[in-house]
Write a structure and sequence with these properties.
The protein is of the alpha/beta class. Helix content is 38%, strand content 26%. A hairpin with a 2-residue loop joins strand 4 and strand 5. The longest helix is centred in the C-terminal third of the chain and has 16 residues.
Length: 234
């Protein structure tokens, strides 16, 4: 479905990603874990066309998407929930959500998709006319995820969705991620809450200093001594 082949990314002269190769199959739930500064956000932004690759290829269903603009990727079935949510604060919740349904296929089904988003996030349904800046952090994250879902993605990319949220909201967020996956959407999750990420995903990539240093089934990764010590505090 999605495949990265030997991808390199630089910020100026400084290397950010080194020879990164990975793949996501249809209907998989995959996570990327690693310390701060490892390149996780760089990786997910590169997949979405927000960073330029120096070398390597990004393939989507066999098509080379390397260098394609982000909105073209959205048309092909990828959607990103960025770190920090990046909502339009003066616009209503409903207006923010509808911005996700700009390409023709999504626009044609936006009423049904909006109903599904409101089912996933009942509190969002009660806030549709409210300015998004007035919402709590957890509610804003729900809107950010909902906006991405309005694009009807085949692959949803999530960058630190639990960052800064209360524990009860984090639990709800991971339940929703599983529900999205169970509906048939592939998910790539970048997450610092390593224990929860490993618990809900099928496969994991470990990124350190811009390189993939380990990968495999999430339950196997979770039991590696170095992972338990470095990321789980065990």
């Amino acid at each position: 479905m999605l495949e990265l082949q030997n991808v390199y990314v630089n910020y100026g002269a400084a290397p950010a990603l080194w020879a990164v190769s990975m793949q996501i199959e249809p209907q998989e739930l995959v996570c990327v874990i690693g310390p701060n500064g490892a390149g996780k956000t760089t990786l997910i932004n590169t997949i979405m066309g927000l960073n330029r690759t120096r070398e390597g290829k990004i393939l989507w269903q066999g098509e080379d998407l390397t260098g394609l603009a982000a909105h073209r990727l959205c048309e092909r079935g990828l959607a990103l929930v960025p770190e920090g949510r990046r909502l339009f604060g003066s616009m209503s919740v409903q207006e923010n959500l509808l911005l996700g349904a700009v390409h023709p296929k999504a626009r044609a089904k936006r009423a049904d998709t909006l109903e599904w988003v409101c089912h996933l996030f009942p509190v969002v349904k009660t806030k549709l006319k409210q300015a998004s800046a007035e919402l709590s952090g957890g509610q804003q994250q729900m809107v950010a995820i909902g906006r991405a879902l309005m694009a009807l993605p085949q692959l949803l990319l999530l960058d630190e969705p639990s960052l800064g949220l209360a524990p009860s909201i984090v639990t709800e967020m991971f339940n929703v991620i599983q529900a999205i996956h169970e509906r048939g959407t592939s998910v790539l999750l970048v997450e610092q809450n390593v224990s929860r990420a490993l618990a809900v995903t099928e496969r994991t990539y470990v990124l350190e200093n811009g390189r993939i240093v380990s990968s495999g089934a999430s339950d196997v990764i979770a039991n590696q001594p170095e992972i338990r010590k470095a990321y789980l505090g065990l």
